[in-house]
Write the structure tokens for this entry.
Amino acid sequence: MERIFSGAQPTGNLHLGNYLGAIRNWVTLQKDFECIFCVVDLHAITVWQNPQELRSNIRELAASMIASGVDPEKHVLFNQSQVSAHAELAWIFNCVARLGWLNRMTQFKEKAGKHRENASLGLYAYPSLMAADILAYKATHVPVGEDQKQHLELTRDIAAKFNNDFEVDFFPQPEPLILGPATRVMSLRDGTKKMSKSDSSDMSRINMTDDADTLAKKIRKAKTDAEPLPSEAAGLEGRPEAKNLITIYAALTDIPVADILAEHGGTQFSGFKQALTDVVVEKLAPITSEMTRLKADNAYIDATLAKGADRADAIAQPILREVKEIVGFLNR
Ligand code: AMP
Ligand code: TRP
């Protein structure tokens, strides 16, 4: 059976990269797959989170997923810490994964930076928890942005080593689904850096909570080069900022890049930026207003996540039982 699992961290500043690279694809996949979507709060605390803010960010992320079109009735939406199978299976995977594998993870290197010795043990073991998220449900497909590809490969390695060590054919090899024209949305201030919730400049990203005026200002001030827009896609090479803005426009409108350039090629950025602002506002405004409505209703969000957690638990528990059996633990 084909089953989707994906997750996002409740660390605030949900941005257009998260939407185009992940959540929007989740919404589309709901038509063809059984889907499990998770607010990964255990992953969030691998770096310090203020408890009050964390609670609010968990609710906000759930609200934005629902506002974007995730259906918590037909599919499963919950927060990770309410389903204990994630942490339990992650421990077992910590004993399957090798130090050498984790040492290669580029996201750890980026996040730990120069202060490696001071990073949490959890940040280092992050990919092993991610493997547990996916494999606790025997998920077969995992939609993510490009930055998560390496973690997915590690998940496949852990699944294979587990099967091999215990001589079973238990875990599937989950496939990454890197979908859509905008798998890597870049910063508005620097077209060579990805748009990120941790960038210190808020002008670098389009937040899902930005109002129309803020969106217009950010796009107007977005970095560009001095040349007019090219008339063909090949002309975008070596022009990362231009490429990024065109890619965002293409992704939001579903218009091919070639058609956009046929219309705007040869013109200055100012006109195109106005057109882009109109598109961004048109597409995000309904989501933002629905998000605001849902955010005011904590009771609904909490009840929805609790119900999702029950359903997730019902799928993961029998799988975890079997894992314990395979490993040689006693089940009660
Ligand atoms: P995170 O917010 O880091 O938990 O990421 C949630 C999802 O958004 C993951 O599938 C990421 O791959 C995706 N994502 C994050 N940043 C970007 C970006 N700049 N462009 C495209 N996808 C992204
Ligand atoms: N590591 C992912 C990110 O930062 C979030 C995540 C955690 C995830 N567990 C997952 C994504 C399982 C897909 C599947 O974007």
